[in-house]
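All the exercises in this workshop are built on plain-text protein records. An example says more than a description, so a record of this kind follows:
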Amino acid sequence: MTPPSRRSIRVRLLLLALLPLGIVLPLLVAVLAIWGGDYLDRLLITKVQADLAVAHGYYERVAAGVGRSVEGLAGSARLAGALQRPGGQREAAVGGVLDDVRRGQKLDFLHFFDIERSAAEAPTWPVIKAALAGTAGTDTELFSAAQLAAIDPELPARALTPLLATVNAKADSRQVEDRGLVIHSAAPVHAVDGRLLGVLAGGVLLNKNLAFIDRLNEIVYPEGALPFGSAGTATLFLGDVRVATNVRLFEGGRAIGTRVSAAVHQAVLNEGRTWLDRAFVVRDWYVSAYEPLSNERGERIGMLYVGFLDGPFAQARHQAFAVVVGLFALAMGVAGVFAVLWARRVFKPIERMHATMHAIEQGDADARVGAVASQDELAVVAEHFDRLLDRLQAQTRSLKRWGQSLDAKVAERTAELVQAVADLKAAQSQLVMNEKLAAIGQLTAGVAHEINNPVAVILGNLDVLRDILGPAAEPVAPEIRLIHEQVHRIRLIVAKLLQFARPQDYVGYLEPVALTPLVQDSLVLVGHLLKKGNIAIKQHFESTRHVLCNRNELQQVLINLLVNAIQAMPDGGVLTLAAEDWDEADMPVGLKLVVADTGPGLTPPERERLFQPFYTAKKPDGTGLGLWVSLSLIERYGGRISVDSEPGHGSRFTVWLRFEPLALERIG
């Protein structure tokens, strides 16, 4: 009866192994195909939605850049100087300024409309009306061919776009599109006395602006950003007509003049919704995102599109499905083979467990069943039996490991305690420093107040003395003038003390400052220090920009950096001064002022404490407040001071200055 019993077990094991695979795996493949396809579609839609957000951000940044360019020139000293020229020189000077800025900022047009002489010539754009009311503005608008010709005779030719027959597009009897999609901005220009002189208007024509659309495509879809060989595209639509795109026609040229499908036209332009789905674009299916472009009045005048080829992803989906089906077939075959082998070896674990129990009864404590090929209940019993024996031998090793772990935890807690003590000491030091600064501020303010009272008395009595003596005071006029100057010097010293105690009350007058003359004036002021040492000066002024700040405060910062650099080179060296443009993401932000020396440099601990108050960096005669005050002044304008230094390689201090303070309303 044994052989039939064994054959019955083999059959049952084979059926138990294959039936779940034959039923469950096909269901899993079907679910995976449906769920995986839907999940991939959702991923692709999420991807193109994120791409549209990036494209929208770039579009808004370009529009904001146009606005900043126009506003910056409207409020610049350069345009104000040109407007102050007499007679015919004024028109030539203003025209030269506008041409330089238009080319430098890559604008298609830039015009100044004089409020007194040619207000009637100014276009009736909403942004110009707002500028006449005193508010600068930027908008995207549709301009007719006549409006473009009034701006610049060359613009209508650039805007003219022949319409090409497009599959699935909405019916349209037009043959050409002659309107222009324009980002334009206007800003008021005021005189020094606040009187409105005119309006400055400028903008960029987006029709056939291939540099703009190619740059947008590079940002959204950089090389290698899309897998499976897919390619990304970007397009600007005027209405439903492509006026700037990198989508290609069958002949290889750009698809400018083709039109969007009727379904997208209805959803985006008519209903104002954002399209996030597949769409047929010219000649291929793309995972597409369209969003409407509206003007200031809320009218939908065009669309912004990004998308990527759907074909490579569909092919990848089919290949993945084929791989899953192949793996399913392979799993079925392998499972069948292993099920037969396992059925043949079902009794081997029983024999080995019997032999192990017999050996243990004979006193062999190291006897084990060992690895069992089958994975049924018998194998589980065998494994449990071996684990019980192994646990007895592992208890001693576990006790040793627990002891080592306890030692490690004690060491870890000790290190945490040491760190906590160090943090507490640092916090106490910082608290003491803050209390010192507060006490110094109160003392300084009190001393300054007390000094101001006798100074006022001295000045008052000095004026009374001069009035009473009259002509009799002429023999001592130099002495009286010297007393007056010294009293005035005392008042300046008091003002500096009050500035240290309450810096927020002593910001000063803000004006456009050029770095080159400021640096030259500062070098004259520290000339006596330069003569004491063998110090060579190198100057590299690559930036001609101006920054809006208080000239005296900026000179105070520069002189402090110069003095520190000179003191760092007692045996001579090279003092380097440089001015560089500060740009971020291709947009001008401000400028950088660099002061570098060839001194001994700074260690990392010195760099960390460099801008802390009362830290003197190996200068026993210093107060330790120079860099701290300088950093406070620069940060008040929205800038910063960075230092790059290594021991033995000198130090390089960089002052980052913005065109205008970030918090002008608080410090102006």
User: Anything to note?
Assistant: The radius of gyration is 40 Å. The CA atoms of residues 592 and 656 lie 5 Å apart. The first strand starts at residue 109 and ends at 114.
